[in-house]
Automatic annotation (TrEMBL), chain A:
This is Small ribosomal subunit protein uS9m. Residues 355-374 have a biased composition (Basic residues). Its main location: mitochondrion. Keywords: Mitochondrion, Ribonucleoprotein, Ribosomal protein, Transit peptide. Gene3D superfamilies: 3.30.230.10. GO terms for molecular function: RNA binding; structural constituent of ribosome. GO terms for biological process: translation. Residues 344-374 are annotated as: Disordered. Belongs to the universal ribosomal protein uS9 family. It comes from Pygocentrus nattereri (Red-bellied piranha).
From TrEMBL, chain B:
One of its GO terms (cellular component) is mitochondrial small ribosomal subunit. The gene is DAP3. GO terms for biological process: apoptotic process. Its main location: mitochondrion. This is Small ribosomal subunit protein mS29. Coiled coil: none annotated. Belongs to the mitochondrion-specific ribosomal protein mS29 family. Keywords: Mitochondrion, Ribonucleoprotein, Ribosomal protein, Transit peptide. It is found in: Mitochondrion. The keyword Transit peptide applies. GO terms for molecular function: structural constituent of ribosome. The keyword Membrane does not apply.
């Protein structure tokens, strides 16, 4: 019982936040503790405010470390493990077991850890502690160390007479540098834009040297793969009807309009929409131009016959839906390179724009009522 | 054979009886001016020919479509393409027997296919052959937008349209000057207490009567039509052939937008002009031909996609017009499109450099779907 209370008393902090000073009785006396529990939380909070901001004095830190160790032993007893060989990992595991949390932010979950960054003698653990951003500067230092090492290696090769410029180069296509947010996450530190730029410049410098392939592993840690967009496209299957003529079917959508088409090969270039000729169905030139765009892009204007059925939306939306459907159906008749160029032309991207909803207190989605000064 | 309804059988019969329309001979689609009309055969199909300007002013004071008039003004010439429907009509006219009752021909097709221009082409042919041309440019103009609607002086329950009748009489006078002195009236017409036209007077006097006395112009039109009907293909001495050309004939049997004073709708029969025209379109007279076009463009209360005779004429109209020779007019074929494209190129109408390439041509074919009017509108801003 007392052990639980002691654990709870120590476990007031979570993650990165600072120590909260817990008003604790000088002895872990049961009676005193019981008296402490009767104190209301309101009085407890008032006490905190009166004490002022915490001061990281030496005795304070020593006390906290002692408490931590005692709490650790108690925790080990609770979990039924040996207190002497109870490591930080075991502590983490036990806390996650005893206090399961549904919070998504990992740093908001309960944690029991000594995160003080300097040892008992007051000297910081990390050699770059006094820079303020120790992880970032140590990374820059390491990278520059590697640059110097590469230069040294280059010189030694030159001395031996084995220097060649055409060494194995790293393949950097299909991958990108870490974003600033990703780098911050990696280093668990805040970085300014200027720092990020300097980091990228140093990396580029490293990559510009010959023999950089030796540090490939190090560099790849800071690169992420780009997904190949065009491999995600679904190509509709080419079917053959009774006469052996190839055709493909596809669907397309835009705003509220839905279109589904059948694209037949060896045709005259006629287009039928809902049984009508496209000239009758789309009297506006712009809609016919939209229809023409995918076929004209791949230079197959007079080759296909299109039978389309479309419903919903207005005439522009229907034209857009048909255009998307025709581009998708064309994918099965077109090579991979052309597919990539179609994707880049924007023919295969469904248009995500829909009508924005009207908000209360406004006349429309964006339009406000007349503003009166008084 | 004229009482057959199915248009396919009738056409086949016509073609068998009159002429074998052969297939195209593949020729270079050049255009060149042909001086004489009568040389037109299928060999010239797809080629352009120029109408002499003198003829234009007399024949077509009011008949041509407005966009074609604009093109005429721009190019300083009137160039018309020789197309298959017009050729068919001309061959039919050449081979027809004019002692039999007049044949009715109906040109029908989708919007912007070239029905009115084909009609004008055929009328030009008729006038060069020396026929009397009775051209009503757009029958729809007579059933809508009329400012003055007078109750008829001669018959109760009918309405006159003085302005329209006056305009038409003026244009008729311009077209058929030389006939007006030759034809004589067969009956005495009394217009008012003091005015009348005696028997045996030249038609010109009748027309002048209508032009000067606006109130009785509609009746004058009726009288004129009656005279022409009686005298067409008649005695050998003053024999002439009558070509009655009505553009937008479906207006005669549709609805009107005109209203009487008590806001009730006016039926087409109650209009003098329409009534007389309907009498004209009955094939109870000989010595001529009736050439008509269906038109959705000016029509009232008809959907845009309607182009077949049944849809546009309605039950009543179809019964009245039947039997007729239907002649479909369609979009340009490949050859005709080539010809039109080359014509525009030659006249420097297509300014954009891309339009001179093969790619540009394919784009034009697609966007206009080979429809003549849409192609013309497209090229207008290239």
């Amino acid at each position: 019982m007392a052990a639980c209370r002691a654990v709870r008393a120590v476990l007031v902090k979570c993650g990165k936040s600072s120590w909260t000073s817990v008003p604790r009785p000088p002895q872990t006396d049961r009676q005193l503790l019981s008296r402490q529990i009767c104190v209301s939380s309101a009085a407890w909070r008032k006490n905190l405010a009166a004490a002022g901001p915490e001061k990281f004095s030496e005795e304070y830190i020593k006390k906290q470390v002692e408490e931590f160790n005692i709490g650790k032993r108690h925790l080990a007893n609770i979990m039924g493990e040996d207190p002497e060989t109870f490591t930080q990992e075991d502590i983490d595991r036990s806390i996650a077991y005893l206090f399961p949390s549904g919070l998504f932010e990992k740093r908001a979950r309960p944690v029991m850890k000594v995160t003080v960054q300097w040892g008992e003698d007051g000297r910081p653990f990390h050699y770059m502690f006094y820079t303020g951003k120790q992880a970032y500067y140590s990374l820059m230092h390491d990278t520059f160390g590697k640059v110097l090492a590469l230069e040294k290696y280059q010189d030694s090769m030159r001395n031996k007479g084995l220097f060649t410029k055409d060494t194995r180069q790293m393949s950097l296509t299909g991958s990108r540098w870490l974003l600033k947010e990703e780098l911050e996450e990696l280093l668990v530190e805040n970085i300014s834009d200027h720092d990020y730029t300097r980091f990228l410049q140093l990396m580029e410098r490293l990559l510009s040297m010959p023999y950089c392939a030796m540090e490939e592993e190090f560099v790849q840690r800071f690169r992420r793969q780009l997904e190949v967009q065009s491999s995600k496209q679904e190509i509709p299957a080419v079917q053959h009807d009774e006469n052996g003529v190839a055709f493909s079917q596809a669907e397309g959508r835009r705003k509220t309009a839905k279109a589904s088409i059948k694209l037949r090969d060896c045709g005259t270039g006629s287009i039928t929409i809902n049984g009508k000729s496209y000239l009758l169905y789309f009297p506006v030139l712009q809609d016919r131009e939209q229809l023409m765009f995918p076929l004209h892009f791949v230079d197959m204007l007079g080759r296909f016959n299109v039978e389309a059925s479309v419903e919903g939306g207005g005439h522009c939306a229907q034209a857009g839906a048909l255009r998307l459907a025709v581009s998708r159906a064309l994918l099965s008749f077109v090579s991979a390179g052309e597919m990539e160029s179609m994707r880049q032309a924007g023919l295969l991207t469904p248009d995500p724009r829909v009508k924005e909803r009207k908000k209360p207190g406004q006349a429309g989605a964006r339009k406000k009522f007349t503003w009166k000064k008084r | 054979f004229l009482h057959l309804r199915g248009h396919k059988t009738l056409r086949k019969h016509c073609t068998e009886k009159y002429h074998n329309i052969t297939t195209w001979t593949s020729k270079l689609c050049l255009f060149f001016p042909i001086s004489t009309q009568t040389c037109h055969t299928e060999l010239h199909a797809g080629q352009y020919y120029t109408l002499p300007p003198a003829h234009m002013r007399t024949l077509f004071p009011h008949g041509l479509p407005p966009r074609f008039q604009m093109q005429m003004k721009t190019f300083n010439e009137a160039c018309v393409m020789v197309r298959q429907p017009a050729l068919e009509l001309i061959t039919c006219l050449r081979k027809a027997d004019y002692s039999e009752p007049a044949l009715r021909y109906v040109l029908y097709g989708e919007k912007g296919c070239g029905k009115t221009l084909s009609l004008c082409h055929v009328l030009h042919f008729c006038s060069t052959q020396g026929w009397l041309v009775l051209h009503i440019p757009d029958a729809h103009l007579w059933v809508k937008n009329c400012r003055e609607l007078l109750p008829s002086s001669s018959r109760p329950g009918r309405f006159d349209q003085p302005i329209q009748a006056l305009n038409w009489l003026k244009n008729f006078k311009t077209t058929n000057e030389h006939f007006l002195s030759k034809i004589k009236t067969t009956q005495r017409y009394v217009w008012t207490k003091r005015e009348s036209t005696e028997e045996g007077r030249p038609l010109g006097e009748l027309v002048d009567q209508g032009v000067s006395r606006v109130k009785s112009s509609s009746d004058v039109v009726g009288a004129l039509l009656r005279e022409l009907r009686l005298q067409a293909g008649g005695a050998a001495e003053g024999a002439f052939r009558l070509a009655v050309a009505v553009d937008g004939v479906n207006a005669l049997w549709g609805k009107t937008t005109l209203k009487k004073e008590d806001k009730s709708e006016v039926l087409p029969e109650e209009l003098t002009l329409i009534h007389n025209l309907r009498k004209m379109l009955r094939n109870d007279w000989c010595g001529g031909a009736i050439l008509t076009t269906l038109s959705q463009t000016g029509s009232l209360f008809k959907p845009r996609s309607a182009y077949l005779p049944m849809e546009l004429l309605g039950e009543e109209g179809f019964d009245n017009m039947d039997p007729f020779v239907p002649i479909p007019v369609s979009n340009y074929s490949d050859k005709e499109f080539e010809s039109c494209y080359l014509y525009y190129l030659d006249r420097n109408w297509l300014q954009h450099p891309h339009s001179r390439t093969e790619d540009g041509k394919k784009e034009l074919i697609f966007l206009s779907s080979r429809n003549p009017s849409i192609l013309e509108r497209l090229c207008a801003f290239l």
